[in-house]
Specification:
The protein is an all-alpha fold. It is built from 15 helices and no strands. The chain has one domain: MFS general substrate transporter like domains (Growth Hormone, Chain: A, Up-down Bundle). Helix 2 runs antiparallel to helix 5, helix 4 runs antiparallel to helix 5 and helix 5 packs antiparallel against helix 14. The radius of gyration is 19 Å and the shape is globular.
Length: 372
């Protein structure tokens, strides 16, 4: 049996695309906090960037998910989304102020908003849900690891602006592969409504929305790393280590969920993220930062693969794109609020804010533990 036949064509193509695109995105994302500080911005700018980048994309996800179900065509949305992202990535390095970085980065995420719900629907309709998202999120995060290592290498060789240009050009490599995606066959319903019928899915949406409010951007981890080590290179090295743990955790999610259940595994991921926030707030040494990176990576790997799997397990096939869009919309909106709050309070009330967010994450854990 070939790798293609055992795993599925769509899974392999979308995993390869995610690896290449995330190498580009994370290279640029790791450097953006440093680029912003070079241009005179601070923690609030980073908070706005971390929140707006995701919120802008998530506002579109519910629409693109619905339309991909309505027309029973998901592939065109995926291609268009990656294309839009590649276009705006090329503009980011030419920013001359923190506000321009925030604007161009947010516009780049429009592409993510267009592609994510239809792409997740394709993955959930192309084989075993937990396996597909476990493998896909692992490839995605190995790309993030490669991107953060590229960033670490480039920052010692070229100016940040030139490194960002290199990252933008990398995103173009993934586009030709998208033409090979096969459209999944789904029986089209005459009328589609954005309506949540399952009480289990409603409870999951509440839990994931609360968790997203607490899930602060990785950019704050980089900021914390630079504050403690005094070195951009050391902060990026810690970020690369986090991505390695993240990728391995996502890859092992399927095995972990088989030992317990997908929902209990997700609950544990939420609890571990709560612990990460507490350790991050207390971090005053490299040793504690390493512990924080491990907790951040494990919890991110579990929750990323787990939440996407949960949507597929709790919803019907005909409205899969719509439900993924709704999930991403709600979590993205709450992520914006959380990141702006953390950015505004980072200097004065960091410990208190992170403590409150840790409680929210624990609440999500309790809501999810006996979900089904």
């Amino acid at each position: 049996m070939t790798l293609k036949s055992s795993l599925g064509k769509n899974l392999l193509i979308l995993s390869a695309v995610s690896f290449l695109n995330d190498t580009s995105s994370e290279l640029m994302g790791a450097l953006l906090p440093l680029f912003i500080t070079e241009l005179g911005g601070g923690a609030l700018s980073v908070g706005l960037l971390g929140g707006l980048r995701e919120a802008v994309s998530n506002f579109l996800k519910i629409l693109s998910g619905y339309l991909s179900d309505r027309f029973n065509r998901k592939k065109p949305f995926v291609i268009a989304g990656y294309g839009v992202s590649a276009l705006f990535k090329l503009l980011i390095p030419f920013s001359n102020s923190p506000s321009q970085v925030v604007i161009f980065s947010s516009l780049e995420r429009l592409g993510k908003g267009i592609r994510t719900a239809p792409r997740d629907a394709i993955l959930s309709l192309s084989g075993k849900v937990e396996r597909n998202f476990s493998i896909h999120r692992a490839f995605d995060t190995f790309g993030a690891l490669a991107g953060s290592l590229f960033a670490l290498f480039l920052i010692s060789k070229v100016p940040v602006r030139e490194a960002l240009i290199f990252g933008a050009l990398l995103s173009l490599l993934s586009l030709p592969l998208l033409l090979l995606i096969e459209e999944p066959k789904v029986k089209l319903k005459k009328k589609l409504k954005v309506k949540v019928e399952s009480p289990y899915f409603k409870r999951f949406l509440l839990a994931s929305t609360l968790f997203s409010l607490s899930y602060i951007s990785f950019m704050f981890f980089i900021l914390k790393g630079k504050e403690i080590t005094g070195s951009s290179s050391s902060a990026l090295l810690l970020y690369a280590f986090y991505n390695l743990i993240y990728a391995l955790s996502a890859l092992l999610f399927k095995n972990f969920s088989n030992l317990t259940s997908p929902f209990k595994a997700l609950s544990i991921g939420y609890a571990l993220f709560s612990l990460y926030l507490i350790i991050l707030s207390l971090s005053n040494s490299i040793a504690l930062l390493v512990v924080a990176a491990v907790l951040f990576g494990i919890s991110s790997g579990i929750t990323d693969a787990g939440q996407r799997s949960a949507v597929g397990l709790l919803t019907g096939r005909a409205k899969r794109g719509t439900h993924y869009g709704l999930f991403h919309f709600l979590t993205g909106t709450s992520a914006l609020v959380g990141n702006v709050i953390v950015g505004a309070t980072w200097s004065s009330y960091q410990g208190v804010t992170l403590g409150i967010l840790a409680l929210l994450s624990l609440t999500s854990s309790a809501l999810t533990f006996k979900l089904r």
